[in-house]
Amino acid sequence: MIEAAATPQPGRRAGLDRLTQFVPDAGARYARYRSFDFGPDQRGNTSVLSPYIRHRLVLEIEVLGAILEQHSRSDAAKFVDEVFWRTFFKGWLEQHPAAWKNYVRAVGDRFEELERDPSLLERYNSATAGNTGIDCFDAWAAELVATGYLHNHARMWFASIWVFTLKLPWELGADFFLRHLMDGDPASNTCGWRWVAGLQTSGKTYLARVSNIVSCTGGRFNPRGKLATSAPPLTESNPPEFTPLTPAVDSEPNGPFALLITEEDCAAEIGLLDSRPETILGLVTTRRRSLIPVGVPAYTFAMSAVTDAVQRASDAFDTEGAVIEADYDCDELIEWATNSGVSTIVTSYPPVGPVADFLDEAEPRLRHHGVELVRLRRRYDEVCWPHASRGFFRLKKALPRILRELGLEGAEDQPEVSMNRIEKQATAVAMKRMPR
After folding, report:
1. In what order do the strands lie in the sheet with 344-348?
2. What is the pLDDT at residue 104?
3. What pLDDT is attached to residue 410?
């Protein structure tokens, strides 16, 4: 029997509680049932940790450490792979940033096409409103908007139907996901849609099949006769080229500095800093995910995550903190920076996406006002990303070495990261240094 899993609630404490609840099931049970979408009220076969990992309310190293404390690497292989798929996509996009830039540019072009093409607009509106007549697709569209979450397998089916059955631009589908998912991640989302469409792995597409949907949804849906039977790959005129990783900054500067917390890393008090910041600011840029309004669940989760992170960091470092929201104007950030009385702002390195775009735009203005922006890259990313320059299986082949380098082993190997440490990190004594 598959039990219900609670709807993800914002905050690190909720993420740690969910991790504790899931750990016993992360081995064979997860591997057996993970591909089944039993509905929004029956999520016990999955971890439902993605919103917490995406915002780094709970760090990947904590999740992996907790899992590998109770399971061997082989028993937990499926779940470990899922954690590293998210890591892989971040590392890949970091080394192919043109894929993100091309996507952002194309989304703008596609929205302009909607204004010019009434037929396309009607089909797009039907899809996003869940009025296509395809039972599974319509249910998933409604679930996504209402809850901010979809089962991973449902995301693949949905994207395939969007591209190959409804023949809608994949960029508009990716935008629909990014603005509604609580775990909306620029890398996983962009690369996932590209993979379904045949762009990520050139020529390889994903076709949603009726038999698979019927089987893996427990017969809840049966779109017989309504789905495309072939999935010809899309092509792109300018495939993103490889770009070497930028050199990492892994230590804060000497002298006073301010801490900037973004929705990309909501655990700044854990392993990021050695010194106490003079002041703290939480920056919420969620509305930059799309040219049109972001879904309420996604916006609320991100805002709550950053607010929670600022409060925890303020308690841990015994310094004042505040939260501001920024869309396409960095004036408030500039004002805070100039009023902070320090010449350096430190933030966790944001991977390619809206947050990084915002900081790239703000950095010259900050420098003009005599303020330097320092982006600290966590050791987890530093270890993993170099293995993500090509396909996932290159990274997977390196997992034993990666896990050893991170101090993580299977249950039989006495891991260094334990649930006891995770619990300690949830309190004010969480300032104890961990590998970045």
Report:
1. 321-325, 279-284, 258-262, 344-348, 372-376
2. 98
3. 57
DSSP single-letter state for residue 14: H
Q: What is the pTM of this model?
A: 0.92
pLDDT class for 254, splitting at 50, 70, 90? confident
Name the CATH superfamily for 258-376: HUPs (3.40.50.620)
Q: Is the pLDDT of residue 436 over 90?
A: no
Q: Output the pLDDT for position 359.
A: 96
Domain range 97-216, its CATH number among 1.20.1260.10, 2.60.40.10, 1.10.579.10, 3.40.50.300: 1.10.579.10
Burial of 177 (0-12, 13-18, 19+ CB in 10 A): buried
Intervals of CATH 3.40.50.620 along the chain: 258-376
Return the bridge partners of 279, or none: 258
User: 328-372, pLDDT tens digit by residue?
Assistant: 778 889 889 888 888 999 999 999 999 999 999 999 999 999 999
pLDDT at 420 over 60: no
Ramachandran category for residue 435: left, alpha or beta (phi over 0 → left; psi -120 to 50 → alpha): beta
* 296-317 burial code (b ≥16 CB/10 A, e <16): ebbbebbbbbbbbbbbbbbebb
Q: Is domain 12-94+382-431 annotated with CATH 1.25.40?
A: yes
Given this model, what pLDDT does residue 253 score?
84
**277: three-class secondary structure by DSSP:** coil
Helix (H) or strand (E) holding 311: helix 296-317
**Which residues contact residue 270 at a Cβ distance below 8 angstroms, ignoring those fewer than 6 apart?**
59, 425, 430, 431, 434
Average pLDDT over residues 273-290: 95
One DSSP character per residue, 111-177 reads: HHHHHH-HHHHHHHHHHHHT-SS-HHHHHHHHHHHHHS---HHHHHHHHHIIIIIS---HHHHHHHH
For residues 13 and 426, is the Cβ–Cβ distance under 8 A?
yes
